[in-house]
From TrEMBL:
Entry's Gene Ontology molecular function annotations: ATP binding; ATP hydrolysis activity
Domain ABC transporter as annotated: residue spans: 8-242
PANTHER family: ABC TRANSPORTER ATP-BINDING PROTEIN (PTHR42788:SF20), TAURINE IMPORT ATP-BINDING PROTEIN-RELATED (PTHR42788)
Signal sequence coordinates: none
Transmembrane segments: none
Keywords recorded for this protein, A-Z: ATP-binding, Lipoprotein, Nucleotide-binding, Transport
Pfam families per the UniProt record, alphabetical: ABC_tran
Name of protein: Sulfonate ABC transporter ATP-binding lipoprotein
Coiled-coil regions listed in the entry: none
Length: 268
């Protein structure tokens, strides 16, 4: 995908869920979003504001009732079938009877589109990626022998290793303790920097959003909508020391201020 192009385009998207015997729930209303190729964009907002719904529309798991969603210029379902699109859910979803290495290489063995994509985008092998993610001693272990953080790292390596143009991540670190989370953020940024996928990342954590993102999309509920898009102009690489700087705190305060409005909309 040429630089300067848009990887994810959402135009006037609306998604309504019918409520039995009540008023329909507008999970997303008139959502417009352009995610530039190669950028890291986070989505943050109160529970129920439509973050996961937006991700599901972009993943092609659901269709918008109105509006248009494109991934690399095509419909999300097409992008997913061609493996241009990857998804990392909240739980790592590894097969318990396969080793870490076999888990990450499985899609390449069973899915022709996945192996074609990987062949067309040469780069580090899955073993190298596992080593970079600090999983060298875990390659031949079963998921049950790993900590939650290591399992999630495995799922992230699997997703990046398929070389998608676009990677969607739905709160992938929410079940982890703060220190594990910080170390995974660092590894995620290293992988992203090396493999150059466009990432759309859902989180509830302000500091996580600031550390990872080029842009932060703030959403509010009832109806689910985008209320702000904040450009994060912090230098990269963003190592742990950055989290203590006044510049970092400035962005945390800015996002919190904008979020406050979204939470007030929730309470109203
Ligand atoms: N399949 C569904 N059927 C009916 N209502 C749904 C469905 N999926 C989501 N909703 C509702 O749509 C709204 C948006 O849900 P969504 O999961 O996208 O929010 P979210 O911002 O991701 O929330 P959270 O932060 O709690 O994960 C919520 O009110 C939710 O209850």
């Amino acid at each position: 995908m040429p630089s300067g192009s848009v990887s994810i385009s959402v135009r006037g998207a609306r998604r309504v869920y019918p409520v039995k015997g009540g008023t329909d729930l507008i999970a997303l209303d008139d959502v417009d979003l352009s995610v530039p190729a190669g950028s890291f964009v986070s989505v943050i907002g109160p529970s129920g504001c439509g973050k996961s719904t937006l991700l599901r529309l972009v993943a092609g798991l659901e269709e918008a009732d109105r509006g248009d969603v494109r991934v690399c210029g095509v419909r999300p379902a097409e992008a997913a079938a061609a493996k241009m699109l990857g998804l990392v859910p909240q739980a790592p979803a590894l097969l318990p009877w396969l080793t870490v290495l076999k888990n990450v290489t499985l899609p390449l063995r069973v899915n022709r589109a996945a192996s074609r994509r990987r062949a067309s985008a040469p780069g580090p092998s899955m073993e190298e990626l596992l080593r970079k993610a600090g999983l060298q001693d875990a390659m031949h272990k079963l998921p049950s022998q790993l900590s939650g953080g290591m399992q999630q790292r495995t799922a992230i390596v699997r997703a990046f290793g398929l070389r998608p143009d676009v990677l969607l991540m739905d709160e992938p670190f929410s079940a982890l303790d703060e220190f594990t989370r910080e170390s995974l953020q660092e590894q995620l940024l290293d992988l992203w920097d090396e493999l150059k996928a466009t990432v759309l990342f859902v989180t509830h954590s302000v500091s996580e959003a600031v550390r990872l993102s080029d842009k932060i999309v703030v959403m509010a509920p009832r109806p689910g909508r985008i209320t702000d898009i904040i450009d994060v102009r912090l230098p990269r690489p963003r190592r742990a020391e950055l989290l203590k700087t006044p510049e970092f705190h400035h962005y945390e305060d800015l996002v919190r201020d904008r979020l406050r409005g979204a939470f007030q909309a929730n309470a109203a």
